[in-house]
Design a protein that fits this description.
The chain is mainly α. It is built from ten helices and no strands. Helix 1 runs antiparallel to helix 3 and helix 7 (149-204) packs across helix 10. 29% of the residues are buried.
């Protein structure tokens, strides 16, 4: 398990608790001796170590993906704010300059009511910043308001940046969902392994409270987890079949 894991929460605490139990069991010959008859020899415990190390890795990957997705969402908001400012500024100039020229306003996508919804604004902006369709009069009037080719290009680029931000958000959201699914899968496997191990350990070590403590368990836990000998044999037999498969 990686040290200094940059995540917190119940999942991280669970992985840490399994790590403690496995490492301390591996480090203690007496504990291994008591666990070995039930299928938890060195090889069996290493199986748990592989699982919790994989779980820790997936938790970090998922946390990183979530942070990246959140950053992408913020970038969308920021880029949209800049694009809106560019659109509203030029639209204001155009509406004032061509208040009596409906044909020019139509050409610039400004005919009718001021758009409010993002999609309507985006469609209107495509026309407004499409310099290839500008008439000489539109170019002259915009130039008078300091909207030359260079400035129009810079302002139009803000919408291109917004489009890029939206695409990036979609990619990062998909990556975050995949990472979350991988995390859930490995945690389910680890929880299944840990549940079996805890049941066995609580029976095998029930007369050794100090051993239970080393594994993060207690005699109280052992009392709750105690199972009948027949059930323990069934559990151990099932585990051995899984390892052999």
């Amino acid at each position: 398990m990686k040290k200094n894991v940059s995540i917190v929460g119940p999942e991280a605490e669970f992985v840490a608790s399994v790590s403690k139990a496995v490492l301390n069991a591996l480090a203690s010959a007496p504990i291994l001796t008591l666990l070995r008859p039930f299928g938890y020899d060195t090889e069996g415990l290493i199986e748990g170590r592989v699982l919790y190390e994989a779980a820790a890795s997936k938790l970090e990957k998922s946390a990183d993906a979530n942070r990246t997705a959140a950053g992408a969402a913020e970038f969308v908001e920021e880029s949209w704010g800049e694009a809106i400012k560019a659109y509203e500024s030029l639209a204001k100039v155009a509406r004032k300059s061509f208040a009596k020229n409906k044909a020019a306003l139509d050409l610039l996508g400004l005919k009718g009511a001021v758009p409010r919804k993002p999609l309507a604004i985006r469609n209107s902006a495509r026309k407004l910043f499409n310099t290839s369709q500008y008439t000489p009069d539109i170019k002259i009037q915009f130039a008078k308001k300091r909207y030359n080719e260079a400035k129009l290009s810079r302002e139009r680029a803000k919408f291109a940046e917004y489009d890029h931000a939206v695409e990036m958000r979609l990619r990062e959201n998909s990556a975050s969902e995949r990472a979350q699914a991988e995390e859930e899968t490995i945690l389910a496997d680890l929880k299944e392994w840990a549940a079996c191990f805890t049941q066995v350990a609580c029976v095998a070590l029930q007369k050794h409270s100090e051993f239970l403590s080393r594994l993060g368990l207690s005699s109280r836990t052992a009392g709750r987890k105690k199972i009948r000998r027949g059930g323990l044999r069934k559990l151990t037999s099932s585990r051995r079949r899984k390892r052999a498969a």
